[in-house]
Amino acid sequence: MKREKLQSFRQSKNLTQEQMAKELNITVSHYKAIEYGQRNPSFELMERIKNIFPKANIDKIFLS
């Protein structure tokens, strides 16, 4: 199941999937797999998202 909230968050920051992956220091394929719901992010990656984007609501993006 595609994570539309993650996609919306990324788009609200005017970032491509490639730019988002670079910000998070992960591969583009890894990021795409997370956004498309094929992989789950680690807690470390969720923490990185929170550190890079402090206003991100991780609960809304991944847990709802």
Topology overview:
Blueprint: H1 4-12, H2 17-24, H3 28-35, H4 43-52, H5 58-62
Helix pairs in contact: 2-3
Summarize the structure.
The protein has a single domain, classed as 434 Repressor (Amino-terminal Domain). It has five helices and no strands.
Shape, principal axes of CA atoms:
globular
Beta-strand share of residues = under 5%
Based on secondary structure, the structural category is: mainly alpha
Tell me which oligomeric state these chains represent.
Answer: single chain
The averaged pLDDT comes out at: 93
CATH class annotation: Mainly Alpha
The CATH topology assignment is 434 Repressor (Amino-terminal Domain)
Q: Counting H and I runs of at least 4 residues, what is the number of helices? A: 5
Evaluate the radius of gyration. Answer: 10 Å
Whole-number count of domains: 1
Record field, number of beta strands: 0
